[in-house]
Design goal:
- It contains three helices and three strands, in the order αβαβαβ.
- The two termini are 32 Å apart.
- It has one domain.
- The chain is 28% helix and 12% strand.
- The protein has helices at 5-9, 53-65, 84-93, and strands at 23-27, 70-74, 97-98.
- It is of the alpha/beta class.
- A three-stranded parallel β-sheet has the order 1-2-3, with helices on one face.
- The longest helix has 13 residues, at 53-65.
Length: 99
């Protein structure tokens, strides 16, 4: 991947800015109870990659620090991650809308 940042520094291109982070999307893993041909992440019952609880705790800390309103959980099938219920419970406890 080519680093294009130095090209911007050398020009009069206006500074980039963004609005407040409102929605944080997280892929909890590639395990799924189905193996759909159209799946853009190639999730299936054979996939074993999943987000650890340590990473989820960091995700919650980032959401809290940046006052994120919505946590969007994706996968695979996010509910197949063994930490799914704990993540949802703790996210709701700090006021996040979980979708």
């Amino acid at each position: 991947m080519r680093d294009t940042f130095p090209l911007l520094v050398e020009t009069d291109f206006p500074a980039l800015s963004r609005a407040r982070l409102e929605t944080l999307q997280a892929n909890l893993g590639y395990r799924c109870n189905q193996a759909c041909l159209h799946c853009h992440v190639a999730a299936s019952p054979r996939r074993t990659e999943e987000m650890s609880w340590e990473t989820m705790a960091l995700l919650l800390a980032v959401a809290r620090r940046h006052r994120v309103a919505t946590l969007d959980l994706t996968g695979g099938a996010p509910e197949m991650n063994p930490h799914f219920r704990r993540l949802v419970t703790e996210a709701r406890a700090i006021g996040l809308r979980v979708i």
